[in-house]
Automatic annotation (TrEMBL):
Lineage, broadest ranks: Bacteria, Pseudomonadati, Bacteroidota, Flavobacteriia, Flavobacteriales
Function: 3'-5' exoribonuclease that releases 5'-nucleoside monophosphates and is involved in maturation of structured RNAs.
Annotated SUPFAM superfamilies: Nucleic acid-binding proteins
EC number: 3.1.13.1
Domain S1 motif, residue spans: 646-727
InterPro entries reported in the protein's UniProt record: CSD, CSD2, NA-bd_OB-fold, RNase_B_OB_dom, RNase_II/R, RNase_II/R_CS, RNase_II/RNase_R, RNase_R
GO BP annotation list: mRNA catabolic process
Descriptive protein name: Ribonuclease R
Record key words, sorted: Cytoplasm, Exonuclease, Hydrolase, Nuclease, RNA-binding
Length: 735
């Protein structure tokens, strides 16, 4: 026998006990005989087979394995198997997050056994703890999180590889030449993973869509959507189905509804909105109270369960708002036409109507299907002008803020309605704040785009009184619908929007950071935490550290989610809360409309498991949409900074790590990194306790919250990453 082959075989024999255990562990529900183990090890000579038989007897004697029928062995059942979710860290190693375990299970890259980030796996935990870590090995992949990935294709003569964009994907994907789908070398593609053969280093896949050349605008936007598995067009059969729906208003349908067409009704939305899914009506009652209606597009009238339209809406679960486009949940015929509460058109609506006193106390409420007629449409800026100029008897909207770019006058009764509702909204908001609600008015970054979607400028969108007026009445409708169903006996299955109390560890970490800026929190109880959080958010307004602290404060909160198990909404300080007001762009609102009508009709409680599953899907899709929206903003920020490479910017240090300093530019909120290796005036060391890096020789300190000047060193559109060059501290640099 050749020498090198003999050596290899000896290695197999030497580690035989461990190898046999590994084989049995990988498929611990199946019994193996010595022949099957020999075949797996590719050992077919009598000597090796004898050794396997001998080792099996040894392991049986030690109690490691059991003989369950003649000559067939199984691993001794152990409590060491868990089911969990893979979280890939750096260098291809990972952790398995198991709900019932306090500590995550560490898994070396060689023990991941082809598991990828987000997969649900079975993991075997070794009894030993290394350096305090519980360590394990993936024994079975139970569910792949995803099988489609975005990456750049490298085409060779006979095959291709796709380098996946996601940094948590530790392997490339091998693509046979006949499955590259016409992709050219260097293009971005969407690749589907088809199989991962036992002996292969990389999974095998096929290109399902060519996205275009990296760096091109449409390529990058489509890549963002594809990376999160979000569609950017409707299947033809769904479009055709939607286009065939009869969207006319019928007398026979009006008879089944409360007719509110004669009540003063209007919408207030962003200037560029096309889907108006909510309208407000206002009427003064003889007893001095007001009747205020919150009218929501009756999407569930058109979108019926069991249709391809409903299936598609459920799969999408939400509209996705990218920087340059909206990917709607419903086809345009519904989202921008039939279900959009456009001015001077009759519409089917689902309404929450309240009798409210001048002190903003709700005396009566009514829920049901209605038909409404919107008398006017306002942009937030126009409504804001009315609120800010209550003494203007001409009720004029100047041309510079008018939607039509022309000056016009507003009917006095609409002005009165807006001013009165603004006053009521402020009272409702004050009550909410007193009850312990938290006011997150985070500044939003918006871009001014040219006709080719290139960013020409950046502006910040703030929430003003007109925004808060709409917000407050939407909150009233959402809360009241949830309370109306939630308080009924016997208990009924319903879709709630819940928000848990913040995690103590996250709040402690936030406290640690904000004290560097001279702020503190009172975390004695739930109420004091909320009050001091509000004070913090108010105190930082307009300060250099505002965006940093706003972001960290939001991160310290739990994530809001959909569920049938109500625990209330901490951030809003409501015991009951749901989403009822945006069914054009959120599927949970469609579910809420259906359930509410079902219960108004006297229906029995719906199946909890079915709705809990739908809630989980809706929460997952909301997270994906949020990530895609964040990525599109990041992409546009990098694109904007690419055109300002020679400019000096003032920024705030927003994060410090052992590899670099993160700096957020004050004027446009773009964040980039100064790599420590690029700081050439000294050798800097990271001080974790101080959130700082310190020069060994100069003792120069760059610390979280410091103001510094930077320049763009590199703007990478594909990775959506900015590298900065450090110019120095503000106090030193421009004196």
């Amino acid at each position: 026998m050749p020498k090198h082959k003999r050596k290899k075989k000896n290695n197999k024999i030497e580690n035989l006990s461990q190898t046999i255990l590994n084989i049995l562990r990988k498929d611990h529900s199946q019994a193996f005989n010595y022949k099957q183990i020999a075949a797996k090890l590719q050992l077919d000579d009598p000597s090796s087979r004898n050794q396997i038989v001998k080792k099996l007897k040894d392991l049986q004697g030690k109690g490691s394995i059991q003989e369950i029928e003649r000559g067939k062995y199984i691993l001794t059942p152990s409590q060491n198997y868990y089911t969990g979710k893979v979280d890939i860290a750096g260098r291809g190693q990972g952790y398995i997050i198991v709900e019932d375990l306090e500590d995550d299970i560490y898994v070396k890259s060689k023990n991941l056994n082809k598991a990828l980030n987000g997969d649900i796996v079975e993991v075997y935990v070794f009894k030993r703890k290394k350096g305090g870590k519980t360590e394990g090995e993936v024994t079975k992949i139970l569910e792949r999180k995803r099988t489609e990935f975005v990456g750049t294709i490298q085409v060779q003569e006979n095959f291709a590889f796709v380098d996946v964009t996601d940094y948590k994907m530790y392997t490339d994907i091998f693509v046979p030449k006949n499955k590259i789908n016409g992709a050219k070398n260097g293009e971005k593609v969407l690749v589907a993973m088809e199989e991962w053969p036992e002996k292969a280093d990389s999974p095998y896949g096929k290109v399902i869509k060519v996205l275009g050349m990296p760096g091109e605008h449409n390529t990058e936007i489509h890549s963002i959507l594809a990376q999160y598995g979000l569609p950017y067009e409707f299947p033809k059969e769904v479009e055709d189905f939607a286009n065939k729906i009869d969207t006319s208003i019928k007398a026979s349908e009006i008879k089944k509804r409360r007719d509110m067409r004669d009540v003063l009704t209007f919408t207030i939305d962003p200037k560029d909105a096309k889907d108006f899914d909510d309208a407000l009506s206002f009427e003064k009652l003889e007893n001095g109270n007001y009747e205020i209606g919150i009218h929501i597009a009756d999407v569930s009238h058109y979108v019926k369960p069991g249709t391809e339209l409903d299936d598609e809406a459920y799969e999408r679960a939400t509209s996705v708002y990218l920087v340059d486009r909206v990917v709607p949940m419903l086809p345009e015929i519904l989202s921008n036409n039939a279900c959009s509460l456009r001015p001077n058109e009759e519409k089917y609506t689902f309404s929450a109507v309240f009798e409210i006193t001048p002190k903003a106390e709700v005396k009566k409420q009514w829920f049901g299907r209605t038909v409404t007629y919107s008398d006017a449409r306002f942009a937030y800026e126009e409504a804001q002008h009315i609120i800010e100029n209550p003494k203007d008897e001409t009720h004029t909207i100047p041309s510079k803020i008018s939607i039509t770019d022309k000056e016009y006058t507003v009917k006095p009764e609409i002005v009165e309605a807006i001013l009165e509702m603004d006053r009521l909204a402020k009272t409702l908001r004050t009550k909410r704040m007193r009850a312990g609600a938290i006011s997150f008015d985070k500044v939003e970054v918006k871009f001014i785009l040219d006709e080719n979607n290139n960013p020409e400028g950046v502006y910040f969108k703030e929430s003003k009184d007109a925004n808060k007026l709409i917000e407050e009445f939407m909150l009233l409708a959402n809360r009241s619908v949830a309370e109306f169903i939630g308080k009924q006996e016997p208990k009924k299955t319903f879709v709630y929007r819940i928000h848990d109390e913040p995690d103590d560890e996250k709040i402690a970490a936030l406290e640690n950071i904000i004290k560097r800026f001279g702020y503190k929190l009172n975390t004695k109880d739930r109420h004091s935490t909320a009050q001091s959080m509000n004070k913090l958010l108010k105190d930082v307004q307009g300060k250099k550290e505002q965006n940093l602290i706003d972001t960290l404060a939001i991160r310290s909160m739990s994530k809001a989610m959909y569920t049938t198990h109500n625990i209330g909404h901490y951030g809003l300080a409501f015991d009951y809360y749901t989403h009822f007001t945006s069914p054009i762009r959120r599927y949970p609102d469609v579910m809420v409309h259906r359930l509410l009508q079902h219960y108004l009709d006297g229906g029995k409680s719906a199946k909890e498991e079915e709705y809990e599953e739908k809630c989980g899907h809706s929460s997952d899709m909301e997270n994906l949409a949020t990530n895609a929206e964040r990525d599109s903003i990041k992409y546009m920020q990098v694109k904007y900074m690419q055109d300002h490479q020679d400019q000096e910017f003032l920024g705030v240090i927003s994060g410090v790590t052992e590899w670099g300093i993160y700096v957020e530019i004050i004027s446009n909120k773009c964040e980039g990194m100064v790599r420590l290796q690029d700081l050439n005036d000294d050798r800097y060391e990271f001080d974790r306790e101080e959130y700082a890096v310190i020069g060994q020789r100069t003792k120069n300190v760059y610390q979280l919250g410091d103001e510094v000047y930077v320049k763009v060193k590199n703007a990478d559109l594909v990775k959506k990453h900015l590298d900065f060059t450090m110019l120095g501290h503000r106090k030193d640099y421009k004196n």
